[in-house]
Design brief:
The chain is of the alpha/beta class. It contains four helices and seven strands; from the N terminus they run H-E-E-E-H-E-E-H-E-E-H. It comes from Pseudarcicella hirudinis.
Length: 176
């Protein structure tokens, strides 16, 4: 009974994570034990509202967190590496909306100049960030692992501990 209760609690705690894995693909034909070293590409794919952070400390924090995860799995940094790490970063402004309908009419008439019509009402705006990491076999020029994590960004998202949490969430699905 204690095991079941522990599993339920663990499930609740992990389901509340603000980080959502949106992509995780592993090349099934690859044995990751054959790789020992890694290095980062010089180009980082940056899209959306992130153009100004391409060479910022945020990128360095992401690289540090990825290096830490790879080192904890037995990989070592080397300029002549087995694996090439490619980083992509996309930040998009999103609009949260809600749909009004006939049942809402009595409560929301004042918002529409005292007339009723069904419409989409903007509730708020927020930024959503997606970090993608690709590992490429250098010798074969072949993608062996790709994953992406997304979260809603706030003013504290660039802090090292939050970057670490996002990268840790990303690497939970990393092949052993």
């Amino acid at each position: 009974m204690k095991i079941i209760a522990s599993l339920i609690i663990l499930g609740i705690l992990t389901s509340c994570s603000p980080y959502r894995i949106v992509n995780n693909h592993v090349d099934k034909e690859v044995d990751f034990k054959n790789y020992k070293t890694f290095s980062f590409t010089t180009d980082i794919e940056v899209q959306g509202l992130t153009r100004d952070i391409k060479n910022s400390s945020t990128i360095n924090e992401i690289k540090r967190a990825i290096s830490s995860e790879l080192k904890s799995r037995g990989y070592h940094p080397d300029l002549k590496s087995d694996l090439l790490v490619n980083i992509g970063l996309v930040v998009q402004e999103k609009i949260q909306t809600r749909e009004t309908n006939f049942r809402d009419a009595p409560r929301y008439v004042g918002q529409r100049r005292y007339s009723w019509k069904s419409e989409t009402v903007e509730v708020g705006r927020y930024k959503e960030g997606t970090l993608s990491v690709d590992l490429v076999d250098v010798k074969q020029n072949r993608l062996v692992w790709e994953a992406a994590v997304t979260t809603v960004l706030d003013k504290d998202s660039h802090r090292p501990e939050n970057v670490d949490k996002a990268v840790r969430a990303l690497f939970r699905k990393f092949p052993e």
